[in-house]
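User: I'm writing a tutorial on reading structure tokens. Could you give me a worked example: one chain, its sequence, then its tokens, then a sentence or two explaining what the tokens reveal?
Assistant: Sure. Here is the example chain.
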Amino acid sequence: MYDRSDTIRRDLSSIFQAGLDRVNPYSMVTNAVSLEGNTLQIKTEDLSLCIDLTPYSRILLIGAGKATAPMARAFEDILGDRLSDGLICVKEGHSEPLQRVQIREASHPVPDVRGIDAAQEIMSLARQADAETLVINCVSGGGSALLPSPFSAGGIDLNLEDKQKTTNALLRCGATIQEINCVRKHISAIKGGRLLQLLAPARSLNFILSDVIGDELSSISSGMTAADPSTYGLALSILRRYGVTEAVPKAVIQLLQLGQAEEVPETLKPGEEALTCADNILIGTNRQALLAAGNQAKALGYNVQFLSSQIGGEARHVGRFLADVAKDMVVNDLFMPKPACLIVGGETVVTLKGDGKGGRNQEMALAFLEAMQSWTAGQDRAGFLAASTDGNDGPTDAAGAFADAIALKHSGATAVAIGEALDNNDAYHFYQSIEGLLKTGPTNTNVCDIQVLLVV
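And here are its predicted structure tokens:
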């Protein structure tokens, strides 16, 4: 029984790793960008650009996000001594050795003072850029938390504590990343296209790795170089919808209300002149990772089906739904021929009600495992892995977790029942006790999550 389950777990890991390998940030940049004489050539699935470097006396690199260090290293290798200088901010532990670009580390997902200092440095560099400066901007998921720059307007001066309390409230209530970033943009001096306003009239090439469902540029790292269609009024409505207005500092509410009354400046809107100086270039997405994972599954002999790259909602609900799909595949031979591999991507949320530790993928896997308990047969014929491509699922050192016959076998020896761990949002400690976590370490990439379901 467990020989088959061991094979399923190995295959799950192999399929997930193939998805990770496809979105390696260094490779994605070097595959898309090359230097031919004085011309920087950029070619992606969606565009082709040739940038003549002759008019520029200086090339500056800036950026923020979990994947920014390998992106910056790629540009150092491509541009060599043409790259004048630069500065990026990454999540603590996600650094790489760089020669010309300075690195700052900061906290994620809740911002800290190191992030504020890094934001001030990057904003200072942006203000110094002129028409003879070409700016290479590397953006990936995590940039919102890593570059906090509290906004001051209308006589209200926000501070780090205001940002921290607002971020914590939004993370706990189950808001989507798009909703969280809508609020972040309107209380920031650098997000919502405001970095682009600081850079103008410098030309900027903004290389973006998406960690947002639908790859909406205005939401990735809160759209520092993209037009923002959202408003102060929408930000206020999000806080009200989730019932967190009392948990958010009064100064934040006051600023949003002033914005709604058009008494403080809005974020960058479509059609504004600063946008003419920028190219936003999407170089990596969840879809690319899923396709690579699928190719690996086919190589291992599985029939592959992609469910979606845009799965959202409550993590535990998605886990239970996928467990029901797996049961039908095992018991009723529905959906697709076996051996079968169903691949899913996106980013779910967790509404915190307990005081445990975990992440959305661990909670999804635990909900799958709870449903799997009730199967009367076929538990050894299915396996499920939910994992984050950045290697950190929630505030933990695990990328995700497995739900399979191995996990069920060991769960009987734990002091805490599966349902009790779910109720307390404590998937991490449950899975840690049965050695069911997937730990990759920081991957230095970030394109949402990958879930893989195997049935043999």
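What the tokens reveal: The domain at 2-18+287-455 is CATH 3.40.1480.10 (glycerate kinase, domain 1). The chain has a mean pLDDT of 95.
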